[in-house]
Amino acid sequence: MPFYNWNEIEVEDVMPKVTRKIIYGERIMLVYYELEPGTEFPSHKHPHEQIGNVIQGQMEFTLGDEKRIVGPGDVFVIPSGVEHGAKVIGDKKALVIDTFSPIREDFLKNK
């Protein structure tokens, strides 16, 4: 199916205070994350390229050796294999849409 609406996509619990919705094709994946205030997304790395787009809220984002506060309208590009993580700051939930290539097969295990 080529058309989707985020409101109709199944919500998955990723970890406490973090949910996601996933849409994917053959070689690209979109992931819509909701992260509650104070939530920390642990530092990690993966072989996928990733581009993130912050829709709402603010996060202290670490990418390699660089740390930055990101908020609505900010976009970050994570090359394959680079360590990264984030912490939601402030009192607003963070909404982020991440794009992965290739798709994250590990995200599809329960599908």
Give a structural overview.
This protein is mainly β and 111 residues long. The chain has a domain at 35-104: Jelly Rolls (Sandwich), CATH 2.60.120. Helices cover 0% and strands 54% of the residues. The chain has strands at 12-15, 18-24, 29-35, 40-44, 49-56, 58-63, 66-70, 75-78, 84-89, 94-101. A six-stranded antiparallel beta sheet has the order 1-2-3-10-5-8, with no helix packed on it. A four-stranded antiparallel beta sheet has the order 4-9-6-7, with no helix packed on it.
The strand count comes to 10
Fourth-level CATH superfamily of the domain at 35-104: Jelly Rolls
N-end to C-end Cα span: 16 Å
Uncertain stretches: none
CATH topology of the domain at 35-104: Jelly Rolls
Would you identify the CATH architecture of the domain at 35-104? Sandwich
Measured on Cα atoms, how large is the radius of gyration? 13 Å
CATH class of the domain at 35-104: Mainly Beta
Gist?
With 111 residues, the chain is an all-beta fold.
Strands, helices and their partners?
Blueprint: E1 12-15, E2 18-24, E3 29-35, E4 40-44, E5 49-56, E6 58-63, E7 66-70, E8 75-78, E9 84-89, E10 94-101
Antiparallel strand pairs: 1-2, 2-3, 3-10, 4-9, 5-8, 5-10, 6-7, 6-9
